[in-house]
Write a structure and sequence with these properties.
Helix content is about 40%, strand content about 20%. With about 290 residues, the protein is of the alpha/beta class. The two termini are about 25 Å apart. The chain has a single domain, classed as von Willebrand factor, type A domain (Rossmann fold), CATH 3.40.50. α5 runs antiparallel to α6. α5 links the parallel β3 and β4. It is globular.
């Protein structure tokens, strides 16, 4: 089953949608010998000097010719924060799901996968004047708290990734995986720079750039009144007169965002809101060897 916007929009609620995408991701990981290893040993980790030898899994050694030790409930190797942009522009959607819907499903799916391998997941819902945070925890019961927070998120207000990055820089206590889900329509010139600066603080930063297909193709022809989703601005234009210049500017915007992420050694994933979300996440995991 393709887990695209049309399919997911027929499922009621974030939890059902996330569960479907989780199953799609796990199925995709198991089909790959390289990536499937990390799923089969979600409760194991590769041996490192200092690990207890009595916890070695000899069956794993016989199968993969590598040493693995069993992990336990109290062991947490990774802390991850799902940063979801909840500004007004994230409410835009022409495919059955808005950009915010897609961001919430992807954040919920990664949280599922993290908790499944006994890592800690948290969430930060951000917009101008708003920073709602659920700190990362590894307990299975904590996942419901994260999903409830994501499900309650509503698009409103101005984008403020700059302010969110400043707050995260102060709050994150040690090396963390920071996954950012946004369309990056932030008027502050330093917004992306501040997000990527978290990398210089030793955090692992992954950017999920969410775009609606209409933003990529600009399929409008008749004179149209465009209303801002974040403030009171209104603009009436003839789409045929501006289409070419719009598409060129949008292409430059996407390229500049991707180039900035790569220059900062941050992961970048362009996600169309109409594409199968399990495939988008599998691309992300594939670059990381099947692990987060």
């Amino acid at each position: 089953m393709l887990l695209d916007a049309a399919t997911l929009s027929r499922l009621s609620g974030l939890k059902l949608r996330a569960r479907a995408v989780v199953e799609g991701v796990l199925s995709g990981l198991h089909k790959s010998p390289h990536q499937g290893q990390s799923v089969e040993f979600a409760e194991h980790k590769e041996y490192a000097p200092g690990d207890e030898l009595r916890h070695l899994d000899w069956k794993a050694f016989g199968k993969f010719d590598k040493y693995y030790v069993k992990r336990f409930e109290h062991e947490t190797n990774l802390r991850a924060v799902m940063v979801v942009d909840t500004s007004g522009s994230m409410g835009f959607g022409t495919t059955g799901l808005s950009k915010l819907d897609v961001g919430r499903v992807m954040a919920a799916t990664l949280s599922h996968l993290l908790v499944r391998q006994q890592d800690a997941a948290g969430v930060a819902l951000v917009a101008q004047g708003r920073f709602a945070e659920i700190p990362p925890r590894a307990a299975a019961t904590h996942l419901s708290v994260v999903l409830d927070a994501l499900e309650s998120a509503k698009p409103a207000g101005l984008t403020d990734l700059s302010g969110a990055a400043d707050t995260l820089a102060e709050k994150l206590p040690r090396r963390s995986l920071v996954c950012v889900f946004s369309d990056f329509f932030d008027e502050k010139q330093d917004a992306l720079k501040k997000v990527l600066a978290l990398r210089s603080r030793k955090h692992d930063v992954a950017v999920f750039h969410l775009v609606d297909p209409a933003e990529l193709s600009f399929p409008y022809e008749d004179p149209t009144l465009f209303l801002s989703m974040e403030d009171e601005r209104r603009l009436e234009v003839n789409p045929r007169e501006i289409k070419e210049s719009y598409l060129e500017e949008f292409r430059k915007f996407l390229e500049a965002t991707k180039d900035a992420c790569r220059a900062a050694d941050c992961d970048y994933e362009l996600v169309r809101t109409d594409e199968p979300l399990d495939q988008a996440l599998l691309r992300f995991l594939a670059r990381r060897g099947g692990r987060m």
